[in-house]
From TrEMBL:
Pfam families: ADH_N, ADH_zinc_N. Gene3D superfamilies: Medium-chain alcohol dehydrogenases, catalytic domain (3.90.180.10), NAD(P)-binding Rossmann-like Domain (3.40.50.720). Residues 17-324 form the Enoyl reductase (ER) domain. This is Alcohol dehydrogenase. SUPFAM superfamilies: GroES-like, NAD(P)-binding Rossmann-fold domains. SMART domains: PKS_ER (SM00829).
């Protein structure tokens, strides 16, 4: 086996020019310590998280350089086709919930990530790849679909027959949330800036679609919020009294008005959500296979073209997941 492998590496951090900090270069073949396994990466998908790392937001500069990529589909050395649970954490340290382990780390935060020919991960992270999905499709599941699953069913505890508004249609988390919520029997409303993406949301199972910020015909039980400042005020206005906005990200900014009067008077709940537990990642794989769901792929690139993918993601110019094959 080679002793060096090609990888996409964050070599520095710059809030204004994140793509200048990205290099595709050779790195040492990863070693698998006791309890870890080496996986040959077949495909890996891009996440906003990689851009945050390159910008220097939420990522310790001491962990630079690091191989980027939190989403992996690949093959173990004994031939098992897998996807990787992306959270490295100790459930005991989080009172049974590994996402509450203060030392939890997503792949590429403290351990080299998936934009490489090989990755080493704890053995517990291996999950059988859903059989109906290609490696490219399966590489979209762990972060975006795992996060959407936890938001809907772990944090919100949404039930069939309830209603949810997903803010945004073309994103990794939002497109997953639409498909998962519709397949689970929720009434799904979706906003998007683009007519084309609104039509695609209907194909994913949305009951009705709206332009970003448009008034809904009725209030909903839950909001899936990943957009942040651009949609937060609308999200709070769209909730039923007692409803919950579940927030996992803030692509357009972290500091919208909190609108506290509305929060207490309508008794709204704001639920943060991060990552997924191993059981939630396994449940996503099972649910997707059971329902025959397929992630939407915006485009597939070679590792050497990964910068083009990040440029499109930074411009918001994507519709579904961007996948790199390796
Ligand atoms: N906490 C966690 O565990 C976790 C996990 C995954 C992601 N995240 C975070 O969640 C966010 C989304 O991640 P992603 O990978 O799904 O990103 P993405 O694929 O780039 O999604 C962008 C989404 O934001 C919407 N959007 C962007 N700008 C908008 C604007 N000005 N107005 C209205 N909508 C806008 C887009 O909707 P349209 O294009 O349809 O309008 C699209 O649905 C990121 O901030 C990421 O860091 C957190």
């Amino acid at each position: 086996m080679e002793t060096a492998v090609r990888a996409a590496v964050a070599i520095a951090q710059d809030p204004d020019n994140p793509l200048d900090c990205l290099r595709v270069r050779e790195v040492p073949l990863p070693e698998a310590p006791e309890g870890w396994v080496r996986v040959q990466v077949k495909a890996s998908s891009l996440n906003q998280h990689d851009l945050w790392t390159l910008r220097g937001v939420g990522h310790d500069p001491e962990n630079i350089p690091i191989v980027l990529g939190c989403d992996v589909a690949g093959v173990t050395e004994d031939g098992r086709e897998v996807i990787l649970h992306p959270v490295i954490a100790d459930p005991d340290a989080g009172a049974g919930d590994e996402t509450l382990d203060p030392r939890r780390a997503l792949l590429s935060e403290r351990h080299d990530g998936g934009f490489a020919e090989y990755i080493a991960v704890p053995e517990r992270c291996l999950i059988d790849k859903p059989k109906h999905l290609s490696f490219e499709e399966a590489a979209c599941l762990p972060v975006a679909w795992g996060t959407a699953f936890r938001m809907l069913f772990g944090r919100a505890q949404a039930k069939p027959g309830e209603s949810v508004l997903v803010q945004g249609a073309g994103g990794g988390v939002t497109s997953a949330a639409i498909a998962l919520a519709a397949a689970a029997g929720l009434r799904v409303f979706v906003t998007s800036r683009s007519e084309e993406k609104r039509l695609q949301a209907l194909e994913l199972g949305a009951a009705a679609v709206f332009a970003s910020g448009e008034r809904l015909p009725e209030r909903v039980d839950y909001i899936v919020e990943t957009v942040g400042e651009a949609t937060w005020a609308h999200s709070l206005k769209c909730l039923k009294p007692g409803g919950a906005v579940v927030v996992c990200g803030a692509t357009t900014g972290f500091d919208p008005s909190a609108d506290l009067a509305r929060v207490f008077y309508q008794q709204l709940r704001v639920l943060g959500s991060t990552g997924s537990t191993l059981e939630e990642s396994r449940a996503v794989a099972r649910f997707v296979e059971l329902k025959g769901l397929r992630p939407r792929i915006d485009r597939t690139l070679d590792l050497e073209q990964i910068g083009d993918g990040f440029a499109a993601m930074a411009d918001g110019d994507l519709n579904g997941k961007i996948v790199v094959t390796i």
